[in-house]
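Summary for the funding panel

The consortium committed to producing paired sequence-structure records for every protein in the target list. Below we show the first two records in order, beginning with the earlier of the two.
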Amino acid sequence: MNTAERDDTHAAGLRSWVDSANDPGTDFPVQNLPFGRFRRAAGEPWRIGVAIGDRVLDLRAAGLIDHGDMNRLMAAGPATRRALRQALSQGLREGSAQRPLWAEALLAMAEVELGVPCEIGDYTDFYTGIHHATTVGLLFRPDNPLLPNYKWVPIGYHGRGSSIVASGHAFHRPLGQLKAADAAAPVLAPSARLDYELELGIFVGTGNALGESIAVEQAEDHVFGMSLLNDWSARDVQAWEYQPLGPFLAKNFATTVSPWIVTMEALAPFRAPFTRPEGDPQPLPYLDAPAVREHGMVDITLEVWLQTTAMRAAGLPAERLSRSNFRDAYWALAQLIAHHTVNGCNLAAGDLLGSGTISGPLPEQGGSLLELSRGGKQALLLSNGETRSFLQDGDTVILRGFCERPGARRIGFGECAGTVLPARGTKGL
């Protein structure tokens, strides 16, 4: 498996001439350099930028590229991306001769609009969080929480790319068919059990031709990088509709992604082994390779924060609900790519894969309210006295993620935030 290796761009002591990038708390030091799209005003074409501290470097204005097509850059492959990362690192370091020119290509992040980081053609959501799968399974199938195929095949379903929005966008509470256990017929109504799901997004760089599979050993060369992803879920709609074909309206009304793609190169210092608990089946040969076992996982701390309407009115900050780690996923990135294409399915630059909800082994590490509230039976008590079993109108959910390890500079993913608006189109219900 070809994975990015550590080099001088990862040196923990590197500093930037962009002062905010040297703040120990920033998500975007010079060791990170994630890619995204921005524009100065609505209606303008999107431009490709790199986050550095609290600034955005316009790559075209800096003379590093001659276009604004993120998907084209993603399709160019890992060699092009690594060369660009090296040029960015050299140019943004303290003492760089590029400073006078590049300073003119820097914009304040707070003064630009950040969008979905690329044009997303297709979206597949996986189910790699075994602790989430087990906890949810126990709620509905106490005697058999994991279905027989879970430990053999990376489970996934095809989602809706058109309703993916960038962090900061609000969305309306969805309508759907709901059926109470004691009701004779379902009704159309706003979801009363609206939830979030803490996930990572995996962006495809170079694709594959229809009919050709990607070997697990080469799979990561087809991954451009990762972002945060919130797979909003209407649990009551889902409970009624999901059999026999799986999620539909319960999932496709909105999915939120963070605006920055952290590249596989930036994540190189934070790799971790892929292991299975003793007694679990080992992956089939097409999903297995020595390099996957040695460093197929990524050590990413993930958090969920909630700010209610009452918190905002009182000037209170968001409150952290849970913390987990991507190391606990049951399948590695390379395995997801290899499995997705083993039947000849063709991926393309900009395609998005969701990791599935990443929960930890402890009850307080649930990546959704469904888990934290035990299916809505045990409401969470917030510090201001409010309670939540599921999301209410006005709630803002913020996902955060970061990597830290001794000998490496901490890097982050930025925020993935979305706010629930009241349902619309309810007249006559």
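The next record, for a separate protein in the list, is shown here:
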Amino acid sequence: MSDPPKQLYYRGKLDPELFKKSLAIVGSRRMTSYGERALEMIVPGLVVENVTIISGFMYGVDTKAHRECLDCGGKTIAVLGGGLDVLYPPENEKLYSEIIEKNGLILSEYEPKQQPQLWTFVQRNRIVAGLSTLGVLIIEAGEKSGSLVTAKIAKKLGKPVFAIPGQITSSVSIGTNQLIKEGWAKMVLNASDIIGTRFTAPDRPTNKILDILSAEPLTLDELAIKLDKNVIETGQILTMLSLKGEIEERGGKYYPK
């Protein structure tokens, strides 16, 4: 780097193996259900290949990337935008502890008690990009997203940039789609596009229902048959998806929102 950090503070296990095969994942703080599902498809395949996931510990894509990695049995590195003793966002207290407990790492270049600021988050992006060996994957980014800054830093450092294509109607997909269109980033549809090994993540019932309904609206009974599940279990999943605002029921049939 032309402006490397003077020092790095850490909590957790400082194991050089963590950095040998690592990928930075960044994206919108306003992550949509599409972005969430994309992470659930991509991250398991990366974990199987012992890829360490690096991210910035913020709302949205960062938090989901850390969480999905841990849930799949992987290791993750969080680069903070403030001092190690300043928990931000506070909702991530459990995640902070779990990263350390599961042999991950919490990093910061800032002195203890340093409060996160807009400029500290921007500055920490160069560390997120710099630590990755496989490159930077961007999942959902608006037209002026900070994730695009990270993409530019990665390019400057000679790191590969990857992006998940997004829905053309979504404001948080403008940045990622533009990166792909202009040749700044390689389009990623699965983990093998990054690591070259084919891996199919196990189907989650919620994902499968959303995929089925995106093709055609169906009744509860019709969905149960397609999923090979009983009506009660299928109904419970539909209720959860309805409460999350991902589907709606009209005339006895379910539609994706």
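Regarding this second record: The domain at 205-256 is CATH 1.10.10.10 (Arc Repressor Mutant, subunit A). The first strand starts at residue 9 and ends at 12.
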